[in-house]
């Protein structure tokens, strides 16, 4: 389900329409729009809350955008911008025929069922999205519900990381190594961080036996990463228990051509 739904969500972060909608409000940079748009369902929260909920950004990164965003642009406006821009991207990428075919309507209906009935306890980002109205338009509803499930899964991933005592920057190091990126500090999500900060993170991971002296996975590090991913999958499962096996099979079949088109376009 992650593989099928993630490309639907990625238009928010990769395609032009959402960026343009957020920029039109006054979010001048990509990251202004990212932090304000994604955090907006939480309301006018402080940077510390966003930092905790997002989890994998370095200290101070959220504070560059929050709460200054709320001073000129209400959270409700940023929510509405994402709700306009993201479906517009989906319609463009999918084309009129695929965006309007009955299978998409059915996929939207079936995705909305688990998205609106998932357990919310301990799921801060997901709970924030649960407060929003589900769109009636099928394309918008598919994006909205897929994004709800993405945030639900993300909350579970954060819980798995916390349980494994893996911090946000450490998570990026493990992710880089899993992708074959070496040295891990060259990974695009963390390469901009101060060298002293990165060195301290890597030294701590060496002390815990997660990476070796050359910055490669140890057996312990690889096993830790696998446990986190397995638990993330397990925690992401309950929403789909609202669907019967036949409905889940139907959802998969309806999503496959949609996802294939989005993957081919790079969700842009």
Structural overview:
With 268 residues, the chain is an all-alpha fold. The chain has 14 helices and no strands. Helix 8 crosses helix 14 and helix 10 crosses helix 13. The longest helix is centred in the middle third of the chain and has 26 residues. It is globular, with a radius of gyration of 19 Å. The model has no long low-confidence stretch (mean pLDDT 97).
Unreliable residue runs: none
Strand content: under 5%
Q: Can you count the beta strands?
A: 0
Write down the overall mean pLDDT. 97
Rg, nearest Å: 19 Å
Query: Which range best describes the helical content: under 10%, 10-25%, 25-40%, 40-55%, 55-70% or over 70%?
Result: 55-70%
Largest sheet: none
Strand/helix succession: HHHHHHHHHHHHHH
Number of helices: 14
N-to-C span: 20 Å
Structure classification = mainly alpha
Overall shape? globular
Oligomer: single chain
